[in-house]
Write a structure and sequence with these properties.
The structure is a homodimer of 313-residue chains. Chain A is of the alpha/beta class. Chain A has two domains: 204 residues, Rossmann fold, CATH 3.40.50.1100; 91 residues, 3-Layer(aba) Sandwich (Rossmann fold). The first copy, chain A, is built from 14 helices and ten strands. In chain A, α5 links the parallel β3 and β4. In chain A, α3 crosses α5, α5 packs parallel to α6 and α8 packs across α9. The first copy, chain A, is globular. The mean pLDDT of chain A is 95.
Chain lengths: 313, 313
């Protein structure tokens, strides 16, 4: 699946008044450590603290008027929860958010500040889906999946559209993989905007379902979700996986220590705090320095929702 | 003294390829705490980590070719030191940097990473000036003052030019005061670009020489320099003071605790680390909430050069 630049521009322009065009940061010391030129696309400064706000906003904007009246629901471990709560509030639409018990308390509190309709459930995917279905039926809501939804994917595409519009000569863009929505959106935008740039996914080794899926060409699942990158524990879906399969050639897997080191380095050199899920892409560059030597590399800092009182370093 | 918008645009355009157009961040939680709408102009993400890079760059660009060949010198407690070292290196001009012994080690190390010509001296202003003069004469260097120099002031003006160009409806812009170079530059830009916006200076109570100077209409000096805001210990000069006197109506003084609280709040809500000198302007809004209630307020986050291992909170 490919989407024309013109179609992506329509998405971008319809959202532009609601989302922040996030800054791109560069840092000489980091370039010298990596031996490449890094462009950090700072979605940690997006509304609701992550790129998910783009996804939620585009999904909401594309609902029909009847659906808008009844409201929406999602299940999410954190960032899409906050994003949908805020995007729907901004458009005066009611929303219900199902969050697993093991989602960070910090992220639950952030949702509660926006929206009272937070429902907790057990942490398995089955339980998330069952609880969601129950409430969805009860209130006649429209379910918006955090990653496996075309409007969500197109909303996400605007991150890379903005990045390439301003930095047309990037060789690579590295993107963290959780449910696959950001990677699929990034792939569509890169394909539409650049002949030379390649999107590479980066995933925690402990939950490397996407790495395995790309290899086996079918959706694989994680046996456990034991990673500090709490936003990347989910698996791919039937809408985003074909896009990933068509456009993505490689995925780098990084260890927990590598994720924490990347997060720490960004903190010490850029003086910004990002969440572990967001440090994963940078960890990929640090791991494969030789591959990126001398290249211009975009890194999507996907989110900044982290409890500054509970840092892992 | 006033400068036309056209002249300021020439300054801005001559520098544009060398400096970063820094991002402006907003945050709902901070707005709700302040009961106003805050626009943080993030000079902490400027090259060399502070707005001083604009000052140094403009000063260097305006040197004549003979002077460029011999090189430049300055004395600074930190940010202008780094800025001049980097700006001159970028233009292939040699520079000498005199720093007082009590400047943060962290800032000295940052200079040494760019330039070996770092000379330490005793911490009094007399000693800084004597040491500088000695080396200046020895190597036939041109002295560039960190704040009391018109090219420096015009370089600084571009911070507020950018901010008002993108946010024309600001009611106030708050600006920290050290040597007065940023405040004077901000005043000139605000005067040229806006009919409604007012620049307000904010200064640590412990070194409130500018507050006293504005009151007595002559340059006053600090009896001691005991503030955590290490970039704001210096006094005004004969070039920037007349500009400040003409355009600035009020200065807010904040305590050390108020500075640390502002720094902490920015860290906890925006997840960015700024240096204490840079938190001073935001401390001014927090201190005078009633004055700024419901208003659109620009805050210049002047720099981010802080040792993340030595936070005061």
């Amino acid at each position: 699946m490919s989407i024309s630049r013109k179609s992506l521009e329509i998405v971008q322009s319809s959202m532009s008044q609601y989302v922040i065009k996030t800054p791109v940061l560069k840092n000489k010391e980091i370039n010298s450590i990596c031996d490449s030129i890094i462009f950090f696309k700072c979605e940690n400064f997006q509304k609701s603290g992550s790129f998910k706000f783009r996804a939620a906003t585009n999904a909401i904007l594309n609902l029909n008027e009847t659906v808008k009246k009844s409201g929406v629901i999602t299940h999410s471990s954190g960032n899409f929860a906050q994003a949908l709560a805020l995007a729907s509030k901004n458009q005066h639409i009611s929303s219900y958010i199902v969050m697993p018990q093991n989602a960070p308390k910090f992220k639950k509190n952030a949702v509660l500040k926006i929206n009272d309709n937070l429902i907790e459930c057990k942490s398995t995917l089955d339980e998330r889906e069952n609880t969601t279905r129950e409430i969805q039926n009860k209130y006649n809501l429209t379910f918006i999946h955090p990653s496996n939804n075309l409007d969500v994917i197109l909303g996400n595409s605007t991150v890379v559209s903005e990045l390439i519009q301003d930095h047309a000569d990037l060789d690579y863009i590295l993107c963290p993989i959780g449910g696959g929505g950001l990677l699929a959106g990034s792939a569509l935008a890169c394909n539409a905007y650049s002949n030379k740039c390649e999107i590479i996914g980066v995933e925690p080794l402990n939950v490397n379902d996407a790495y395995k899926s790309l290899k086996s060409k079918k959706i694989e699942y994680n046996l456990n979700t034991d990673t500090i990158a709490d936003g990347l524990r989910t698996n791919l879906g039937d809408i985003n996986f074909p896009i990933i399969l068509e456009h993505i050639k490689s995925i780098i897997c990084v260890s927990e220590d590598e994720i924490i080191n990347a997060m720490k380095l960004i903190y010490n050199k850029l003086n910004i705090l990002i969440e572990p899920s967001s440090a994963v892409a940078f960890a990929g560059v640090l791991k494969e320095k030789e591959k990126f030597k001398g290249k211009k590399v975009g890194i999507i800092l996907s989110g900044g929702n982290v409890d500054s009182k509970k840092l892992p370093f």
